[in-house]
Amino acid sequence: xxxxxxxxxxxxxxxxxxxxxxxxxxxxxxxxxxxxxxxxxxxxxxxxxxxxxxxxxxxxxxxxxxxxxxxxxxxxxxxxxxxxxxxxxxxxxxxxxxxxxxxxxxxxxxxxxxxxxxxxxxxxxxxxxxxxxxxxxxxxxxx
Length: 143
What we know:
Elements (H helix, E strand, L loop, with lengths): L5 E9 L4 E11 L2 E12 L1 H15 L5 E6 L2 H16 L13 H12 L2 E6 L7 H13 L2
Parallel strand pairs: 1-4, 4-5
Antiparallel strand pairs: 1-2, 2-3
């Protein structure tokens, strides 16, 4: 019998950028699913993408191995490629400008540290069921 894999689908949405925003997450383990969502009155889409991942990972009660699926290259590349370089450069990008959303990147890094996370990017609005659900949760959470 195969062991179920925990998969988390996340998405963020914003009306205006900045503007009111929402985030959503769908957690799937075997045949069980759980949804999470939240919002902010004044935010950006990137902040909501980060919040979706942070909140989903912080929701987990025990360290685990999981796949986190996102349609945000900002999130996926940021955590997988850019974060170590930003830290080496004291939270500055290659052009010397400060990294935006440092507070959330630091929170995400702390949340990831408890788990073994494989990051997967999918094209948004391409009919992927888990991504579509996370998108719906994010959009309906917008105040």
